[in-house]
Design a protein that fits this description.
CATH architecture of the largest domain: 2-Layer Sandwich
Number of domains: 3
Structural class: alpha+beta
Strand content: 5-15%
Radius of gyration: 23 Å
Number of strands: 11
Helix content: 40-55%
Distance between the termini: 45 Å
Order of helices and strands: HHHHEEHHHEEEHEEEHHHEEEHHHHHH
CATH topology of the largest domain: Beta-Lactamase
Shape: globular
Strand order of the largest sheet: 2-1-5-4-3
């Protein structure tokens, strides 16, 4: 069976593949439909890029200037893994006429190293440190798509969403904190058609695993961690092993993690189903299936977790309580289980979002406010856009763009002022 994350099967003609995918790309931009030979992972990325209104021509935006880049890079966990990246990929990038890049979880390039001539060429599309290469800002590309799909991937020439990037081929793998399962960023190699081979994808995957193992030496005991912010399906990390949970099981784990003393069947049913008339056997069946997945971690009578389970929800709450708003913004990867309709989850989701927004509105820091508006959950937040305008100097030309967005949102909402929030 063909590996869907590889750009081309052995023996494929790269020239013909480029030609047919480019035609498919133009057809997608014109009519929104995707036809073979476009891979599913690429088609899904094109749709996400189009929904985010990513540019089809142009350069990726540079978000971090020299001072901000230096501070962010020095404090980032991946700085400790740079010796591993350079040992495994550095000399290959230099000798092989391609680049090695490392980005954070937002897709901002923190390090770009390798062949000098290739670097100069890549600069023309802003493949430079400080630039943002997530799908929302740069369209389909290996580091951005690896972050979005949370999987190693190759992107070949015309598979890139942005035409300016379609002469390049790249392979990237996501990087995680093994203790928490938290996505830290991605490692990427970018160059010519020669990278469209199974070897380049295997190389970045092996490098990512080596870097994660190296970083684990700094984190101590692994423990149990539940990642549920910005995810429809939570990620449970138990002693370094990751398990993706189904949606209902994600809800149960979030609710039990918030109540370490445990919940009775009636209490858990109310938090999951509300006032709906649900037979007790329905909940018992769900819990039984969850127990098969997580084993002795889940106990009954009352339903409770046998080990302390840290959650990214609790981490954000702790960071907000300590006044570390920048850290909270980095940890907050989106609303808690955003598609969940479980009443208990909805209350937790709204409470955390409200705390985040109140902290942002209270701090009135333009960079933090702007960071919120550049997310899918914050781009329509009129009150934050208005606060961003007010936080900028009165006669600054930087007020024009957020002011125009605020005006557009007010017109769309039919309001004179911003709504209190989205929950």
């Amino acid at each position: 069976m063909r590996n869907p994350w590889l750009a081309m099967e052995p023996g494929a003609d790269p020239v013909e593949r480029t030609r047919t995918v480019r035609r498919a790309h133009e057809a997608f931009l014109a009519g929104g439909t995707v036809a073979p030979p476009v891979r599913q992972v690429v088609a899904a990325s094109w749709r996400r890029s189009a929904e985010a209104r990513a540019a089809t021509d142009g350069a990726a935006p540079v978000e971090l200037d020299d001072a901000a880049l230096r501070d962010h890079r020095d404090g980032h966990p991946l700085a400790r893994a740079m010796p591993v990246f350079r040992e495994l990929l550095g000399s290959i990038a230099q000798d092989g006429a391609h680049l090695m890049a490392v980005c954070d979880a937002q897709g901002r390039l923190l390090w770009v190293e390798g062949h000098t001539g290739v670097r100069r060429s890549a600069e023309r599309m802003n493949f430079v440190v400080g630039a943002r290469w997530d799908e929302r800002h740069a369209g389909t590309n290996a580091p951005g798509t690896a972050l979005a799909a949370d999987h190693a991937v190759q992107i070949f020439t015309a598979e890139h969403y942005n035409r300016r990037v379609q002469r390049w081929t790249c392979a990237a793998a996501p990087l995680h904190d093994l203790r928490t399962g938290r996505l830290l960023g991605a490692v990427d190699i970018t160059g010519g058609d020669h990278l469209a081979s199974p070897h380049s994808l295997a190389l970045v995957q092996a490098t990512a695993r080596a870097a994660e193992a190296h970083l684990a030496t700094y984190t101590g005991e692994l423990g149990v961690f539940l990642t549920a912010l910005g995810r429809d399906e939570a990620l449970l990390t138990v002693d370094g092993k990751r398990l993706r949970l189904g949606r209902r099981h994600s809800e149960i784990m979030v609710l039990l993690a918030q109540r370490p003393e445990g919940l009775t069947g009636d209490q858990l049913s109310l938090l999951l189903y509300g006032e709906r008339d649900i037979r007790p056997v329905t909940l018992r069946a769900e819990v039984s299936r969850l127990r098969k997945a997580v084993g002795p971690l889940l106990h009954a009578r009352p339903y409770r977790l046998a080990r302390p389970v840290e959650t990214d929800l609790a981490v954000v709450e702790e960071e907000l309580a300590a006044g570390r708003l920048t850290a909270a913004l980095e940890t907050y990867r989106g609303p808690l289980l955003p598609v969940s309709e479980a009443p208990g989850v909805r209350r937790l989701r709204c409470a955390l979002e409200d705390r985040m927004r109140r902290a942002l509105l209270g701090a009135r820091n333009p960079d933090q406010l702007r960071q919120w508006t550049q997310t899918p959950w914050g781009e329509g937040d009129l009150e934050i856009w208005e606060a961003l305008v007010d936080a900028l100097p009165e006669h600054s030309p930087a007020r024009a763009a957020p002011g125009a967005t605020a005006d557009r949102l007010r017109a769309a909402y039919g309001l004179a002022h911003g709504p209190p929030g989205t929950c």
